[in-house]
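Quick start: what a row looks like.
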Amino acid sequence: MVSTRQPGGRPSSVVDLFPTKHLAAPSVRDMPDPPPTFRHVIGPGIIAAGVGMASGEFILYPYIASQVGLVFVWAAFVGLATQYFLNMEIERYTLATGETALTGFSRFWRHWGLVFAIMAYFANIWPGWATSSATLVTYLVGGSVVPIAIGMLLLIGVVLTMAPVVYQALEKIEMVKVAAVLLLIVVASVAAIGASAWADTPQIITGAGLPYEELGFALLLGALAFAGAGGGQNLCQSNWIRDKRFGMGAYVPRIVSPVTGHPEAAPSTGFAFEPTPDNLGRWRRWWRFANVEQLTTFVLISFLTILFTSLLAYSTVFGREGLASDISFLEVEGEVLNETVGGWFGTFFWIIGAFSLFAAALGIVDYTSRLGADVLKTAYLRKANESKIYFALVWGLVLIGCIVLISGLTQPLILLVISAVTGGLMMFIYSALLLLLNRRVLPKEIGPGAGRVAALVWAFLLFGFLSVLTFNQQIQNLLGG
């Protein structure tokens, strides 16, 4: 498309701002009216918190607290604040266009979306959360991890396939998970977290530090950067708010079940609105709703979870020798809770943990498949049905996980290296791409201001440094250094 501009260099239409070498220009439509109340937009941030509420909240931060106390909890706030700004720039583009951030990246280079989808698959191909959930189940009822984990993977495939509208089912499951974790927090605050632990809470600020000598620099930076979510999950904010009908996403059909749903014809690209006073007024209300939703759900819930699970670990197992930094750490914590509080509480702790990790596994299968389906539909298979692509990818990921488990493979070292490096590398790259996309493609009236640009630059530098550090450490591990 040849851009036409008014005198002074201003585009004659908003669509003239969009690169069209690889994808067609968006259609022009008015920005939809926002809902009358805030409660109608609650959902995507809770899904983000629910899916991300896994290793950091239940393993990593509690383990750090068990080793060095509460002096590193501050890092969770920094990491969540960084991800908040990243998530909002991802949401900005989708609110304004109905396109995902991956589609926007593909406007600059056709294969950007495929690169990120492949990286997400590399990070998630090992069914780690299903096996972690299955491990907690064995603490409760015994049995073998592998068949339980396979059963969970198959159940995930069935749940995602049979839900008439996948987003709505995911939202309900993650809301139940978040409610269960908040219940655990409330009960733990009364029954398990002792007075001495509450008295030491100010150490989060007064004793804030970087205990790298005890735990290693890369571990601490990883906890800082990936509190809450990380990697491909942040990119899926586009898909989730679109299915929630945020902004211009209201014009884009949702992913529905091939069995129980009713598919609609979907365009490969999105929409744009002219920056008229009416459209800008509606935009400002949508943008305010989206920011408040993300702050009061994703950021607040994730931070409260990290804070209270850290306090719980600090109150029960701080200073205990030989604690593992993997899922088996939760077995010890549960046993201590059984001894100190009563047999009911350790069991309750494991039940909530098992359900939480299962819900995380379901969300990971969903977002990985969403990213892949979006990319394939938009850039390569434009006449295909996105819902059918999505379900093929869901079952592909489920079956690959089952094959890995049946084969008896433990996590291969190369997969650990890929998983460790991939998340940070993705965030490093798309921090820069988001800055380019939202500054160059969106009208100036709705683009990021100086403060949001600074936040993206900070994210770019943080994840770049983290990626280099982690990659260097993993190479040393591979070489036996």
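That is the whole record. The beta strands are 27-28, 271-272. The longest helix spans residues 277-317.
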